[in-house]
Amino acid sequence: MSLVTESSWANAGGTLSVHTHDSDTVQGSMRFAVFTPAQAANGPVPVLWYLSGLTCSWANVMEKSGIQHAAAEHGLMIVAPDTSPRGDSVADDEAYDLGQGAGFYLTATQAPWAPHFAMDQYVKDELPEVVGKHFKADLSAQGITGHSMGGHGALTLHLKNPDQFKSVSAFSPIACPSQVPWGQKAFSAYLGDDQSTWANYDSQQLVKSKPSQATLLIDTGDADQFLAEQLTPEAFIETCKAAGQSLNYRMQPGYDHSYYFVSSFIRDHVAHHAAVLKS
Amino acid sequence: MSLVTESSWANAGGTLSVHTHDSDTVQGSMRFAVFTPAQAANGPVPVLWYLSGLTCSWANVMEKSGIQHAAAEHGLMIVAPDTSPRGDSVADDEAYDLGQGAGFYLTATQAPWAPHFAMDQYVKDELPEVVGKHFKADLSAQGITGHSMGGHGALTLHLKNPDQFKSVSAFSPIACPSQVPWGQKAFSAYLGDDQSTWANYDSQQLVKSKPSQATLLIDTGDADQFLAEQLTPEAFIETCKAAGQSLNYRMQPGYDHSYYFVSSFIRDHVAHHAAVLKS
User: Fold this and answer.
1) Of chain B residues 13-42, which have a CB less than 8 A from chain A?
2) Per the omega criterion (within 30 degrees of 0), is the bond before B115 cis?
3) Which letter, b or e, does each residue of B171-201 get, where b requires 16 or more Cβ atoms within 10 Å of its Cβ?
4) How do residues A144-190 score in pLDDT, each as one tens digit?
5) Pairing status of strand B137-146 against strand B165-171
6) Rounded distance, CA A225 to CA B14, Å?
7) What phi and psi, each to the nearest 5 degrees, are found at residue B80?
8) From A9, A255, A267, residue closest to B260, measured CB to CB
9) pLDDT in tens, A46-92
10) Is any Cβ of chain A less than 8 angstroms from the Cβ of B66?
C-alpha cells in the first residue's frame, strides 16, 4: 500500500497534498488530495470526505471551493478522491456522464465497467485505510459531503453507513437518481436493467427504507440549470418528510450549479460537520 | 462606452459578472470581472482593484482566491481586469512573459506594442470611468492590490497616484523590476533600452523618489520559486526603510507563488483595504 506524493503546497495554515496509490478495490491507480490542518500537529483530527461531481478530479474542490479555509478554522482534515479510476486500462465512454470521471459511487456489475468501477467500496473501506495509515486522521470521526453526483455519493454512503459517516451534507445532489436521466443512464450501464438493484444506490429509496438519525444538510441553487430534470428537490424533501428523516434542505435564491455556488456555502457545511464530529 | 455582459453568477451573497467593452486606451476589446457585494443595494461601495499576474485573466482570482467572500464581509466591490488586451489585432509573443497576458501595467512606447499596451492608463482612468458608470462603485474610495506582475502594477499605480488609490497591498510583487529578468525583458521590449524611462514603472525607484503616506502590506512566500531571482524582497525592504516608506512586508513560511498562497492570506489583505477605505 505504497503512497506516491505528487504535489504539496502550504495552504490555509496547513498543507494541501496530492497522492496516488495502487488500489485493490478498483484494480488500478487512484489519485486523491488531502488538506491537513495545522491542528493535526497535536494529534489525529476528524476527517471530512468530499466527493466531487461529473468530470471532476480532486482539483475542482481544492482550487475553487475554499473548503481548506473553513477546515482550517475547525481543525478538520479534508480528503477529496478522484471521481473514478482513470487511465488506458480503465473502460471509458465518450459521454461526460458515463465512464471515467463518472463513477457514481457504486459497484458496477456489468461489463465493461466491473471490476474497475467500485467507488463506493473505495470511499468506504480502502481510502480510509490508506488515509488512516499515512495521515493524522481520526477515523472515529468521519463526515461526508459532495457536489452533484458527489452529493448523491455522500448521501447514499451515509444512509448505508451512518455509524461510519456520522455527519453528512450535500450540494445540489442527485437525490433521486432512479427517477432522472443522469441516474438512469448510469445505473443501466453499471448495474443493468434490473431496477431492483438500483435502490441500493438511490438516496430517496434508502431514506424510505431506513432513515438515519443524522440531520441531512443540503443546499441547492434555485437557478441551477439541472434543478427540475436531474436534482428534483421536492420529491426528496417529500420522501424525507414522510419517512421522518431530519433534513435541512435550503433552496438558495439565484445560485446555479457552479463552484461559485459551492464556495458561497462551504463554510456552513464545514461548520455543520464540525459540530457533529467534534462533539 | 457600451458594456457587454458575458456571464453572471450569484456568489457570496452578491453577484460576480464578466464584461467586455471597446477600450479607447488600448484600442481594442478589454474584459474584466466585477464582484458586487450585497451591500451595494444600499448605495455605492468602495472598490478594490485586483491586478493579476503573468498569463492570467480575470478568472484566476475569481475562481481561486476566495476574494469575493472576504469582500462580502466588508462590503467591498472587487474589479479584476484582464492582464492585457488580447486578440488577433494585438501584438503578441510566444513567450509567456511578453505580449498578450503580460501587459506589465505600463504604457509601451516601442513597436509593435504601442499603442495597444497601455494597461496603467487603462486601470487608472478608463476602467474606473466604466465601472463608475455601470456599477455602484464609490470612486472616492479606491484601493489596489495584485499578484506577482499585478503586485508590481498595484504598487506602482499607488505610488504614482496615492490620492486615487488610497490603500495598497500586494502578493509576491515584482518590486524591483529594473533589476530582475522579468522586468528587464519587459521594459526593454515595451519601453526601449533607455533605462531612464524605466524608473517610472519601478516600485523601488518610485519609493526612493517619493514614498507614500500609506502602509504597504505585502505577503510573499519564503518557498516562492521566483523569490531570489525575480521578487527580491530584501532589496525592496531596504529601500523602504531608507526612504521612510511605511511597510508591512510579511515573509510567509513554506508558501509558494500559487493561488494556494494568495487564498491563504486574501482575507488579511481585504481587511487592510477595508480599514482604510471605510474610515
Assistant:
1) 13, 16
2) yes
3) bbbbbbbebbebbebbbebbbeeeeeebeeb
4) 999 999 999 999 999 999 999 999 999 999 999 999 999 999 999 99
5) parallel
6) 19
7) -125, 105
8) A9
9) 999 999 999 999 999 999 999 999 999 999 999 999 999 999 999 99
10) yes
